[in-house]
Amino acid sequence: MSSSNNPFEATTKVYGNTTSYELTDGLLVPDGGNILIKGTDIKSLTSGFIESIQIVEGGIIYEYQILVRAGAPSSVIDMRFYDESPDSYGLTIGWPFMVFHTVNYNSSDPDIDKIKISITTNYQNPVIEEYIKQNNLR
């Protein structure tokens, strides 16, 4: 397990209203702070959909927690994190407001060395849209 984050290389592909990012050749480590990306930051790379990604250590059931601060107004964010063991962990975000989302996990090699992100815009989730309407959130 490394003690500090190393910057990821980012590859971006666009397919209609879906933008996919593959982050490789970097490292996201527990308690190492926000993710680093060569030449940019996660907020700029993802057009503001994702503000931060980090891992914290400590918990009762799970030893590690990936914290993603993101919001997906009229969009869906699908993420997959790959650790060095090599296990993978998924997260789907459809909530329109900028909040923390979490992935809890245990691993013998918890450093994340690859992340795949897919953001589909102009997606309407009827459950969330009804919640927003009922609570006058727009």
Question: Which terms would index this structure?
Answer:
8 strands, 138 residues, single chain, mainly beta, globular, five-stranded antiparallel β-sheet, Jelly Rolls, 9% helix, 44% strand, three-stranded antiparallel β-sheet
Proportion of beta-strand residues: 35-45%
Structural class: mainly beta
CATH class: Mainly Beta
CATH architecture: Sandwich
How does the major sheet shape up? 5 strands, antiparallel
What distance separates the N and C termini? 44 Å
Task: Report the uncertain regions.
Answer: none
Number of domains: 1
Shape by Cα distribution: globular
Order of helices and strands: EEHEEEEEEH
Q: What strand line-up does the widest sheet have?
A: 1-2-8-5-6
Can you tell me about this structure?
This protein has a single domain (9-134), classed as Jelly Rolls (Sandwich). The chain contains two helices and eight strands. A five-stranded antiparallel sheet has the order 1-2-8-5-6, with no helix packed on it. A three-stranded antiparallel sheet has the order 3-4-7. 9% of the residues lie in helices and 44% in strands. The chain is mostly beta strands.
Furnish the topology, listing elements before pairings.
Blueprint: E1 9-15, E2 18-24, H1 42-45, E3 50-57, E4 64-70, E5 75-83, E6 88-93, E7 99-105, E8 112-121, H2 126-134
Antiparallel strand pairs: 1-2, 2-8, 3-4, 4-7, 5-6, 5-8
